[in-house]
Specification:
Length: about 425
């Protein structure tokens, strides 16, 4: 799972690095906003409703994979249409953001299928399927960027196509692994059967994604695209550590959901994530302060000058992430979606408010410091929620309650894949 998460991030990391070199800083800011829209829809909507729900209910990945994919296709299709409509409206007023948003909307269904396919493989205890999907996207991305460079088409439009188009192509392989959803699979029946969990997961994850998207949009309004470019470039430097920390967290959540350990077993799994998360954070902080300016310019091009004032706050954010590694995933593996939802909402409010206030005071650097303050407060709530849960009289729930059974009895021909 860690290998898969690393490969998954490499494609996006490589494209962001490439765009930082190939585009002017203001176009890099626009590309980052288009990327954030994808992340908000995929990470904040489809992944929360579908991917994390099936991770918490691995029995569905074993028996109803096509129904899971059918729900994902419908959700991503609607979200894609909304993007196309918004992008079209921007084109009418002459905005250069219009075309990238339209492209993201058109590619959204297959991009979402690629990501849901990864989580299905992990939930099925077959992470090799996820590794293959992300490796395929990485190989296609390298080929696309190479072709763009050879033809001298380093433009905002072509970079969006090079990143999103290859992800959509990789998404087609999910149908080879899991089967093509049939007509009756293209419904929200599966989502309805898990609605008690999935709607709370949606609120929780979309709140987290909102920090990235709406926070950046607010920074753009307060301080302009260059401040957005600085914040996004800073997040690029955080990506290696957050990739490993996030991958270990996904592993913890999946293991807890499938293995159903007692509290002692949960603590051991969470401790594993915590130790790895802190160790990776310390290594990254050392790299940040030892990295020479020449290497930084090679890595980020002209954008490096915007990032150097942020190295201290980036280091503190990475360390803070390490101290909460696996806490949220452990609660999700135990299906404790109610406290997760509440803390994600609280964290969203705190970090967006911090970013906006900080940006008004100190542009990109102020935005990062403001977000860090909100992050610290949120971490205390995460640990408090885990401690409260461990002291509770928790028992693992049945896989399906009577309401879910009634919904499923209305289906035919969908029991096996």
């Amino acid at each position: 799972m860690t290998l898969d998460q690393i490969i998954s991030s490499v494609s996006n990391f490589m494209v962001l690095i490439w765009s930082a070199h190939a585009l002017e800083p203001i176009d890099f800011g626009r590309f980052s906003l288009a990327f954030l829209i994808y992340m908000f829809i995929q990470g904040g909507i489809v992944r929360s409703l579908v991917s994390w729900t099936v991770m918490a209910h691995p029995e569905d990945a074993d028996s109803r994979a096509r129904g899971v994919l059918g729900s994902a296709v419908l959700l991503a299709f609607v979200a894609g249409l909304f993007c196309i409509a918004c992008g079209g409206a921007l084109l009418l007023v002459g905005s250069e953001m219009g075309t990238p948003i339209v492209l993201v909307g058109a590619l959204m269904p297959l991009l979402s299928i690629q990501d849901v396919g990864r989580y299905l493989g992990i939930a099925q205890a077959k992470p090799g399927r996820a590794v293959f999907l992300d490796t395929l996207w990485l190989v296609l991305t390298v080929a696309a960027l190479g072709a763009i460079a050879l033809t001298d088409n380093n433009s905002l439009l072509w970079l969006v196509l090079g990143w999103g188009g290859t992800g959509a192509l990789a998404g087609l392989w999910v149908f080879v692994q899991q089967g093509v959803p049939r007509a009756h699979d293209l419904s929200l029946r599966w989502l309805r059967s898990r609605w008690e969990f999935s709607w709370r997961s949606l609120v929780a994850a979309s709140s987290s994604a909102a920090v990235a998207m709406f926070g950046s949009l607010a920074v753009a309004v307060v301080s302009g695209p260059l401040a957005v470019a600085a914040v996004r470039a800073a997040l690029i430097l955080e990506r290696p550590s957050t990739t490993v920390q996030g991958s270990v967290a996904v592993s913890v959540g999946a293991d807890i959901a499938r293995q159903r350990p007692d509290n002692a077993g949960l603590i051991r799994m969470q401790r594993r994530a915590l130790v790895i998360g802190i160790a990776v954070a310390i290594v990254m902080v050392l790299i940040f302060f030892l990295i020479p300016d020449s290497f930084g310019r090679i890595l980020l091009g002209d954008v490096w000058a915007l990032v150097t004032p942020l190295l201290l706050v980036i280091s503190l954010r990475v360390l803070a992430n390490g101290t909460q590694s696996g806490v949220r995933a452990a609660l999700m593996g135990r299906r404790q979606i109610k406290p997760v939802m509440k803390i994600d909402i609280l964290g969203t409010v705190l970090m967006i408010a911090g970013m906006v206030i900080g940006a008004a005071i100190g542009d990109g650097e102020g935005a990062m410091w403001g977000a860090f303050v909100g992050q610290l407060i949120t971490i205390f709530f995460w640990w408090g929620a885990l401690i409260v849960h461990l002291r509770s009289d928790f028992t693992y729930p049945d896989d399906l309650d009577p309401a879910e059974v009634a919904i499923l009895e209305g289906r035919t021909g969908e029991a096996t894949v």
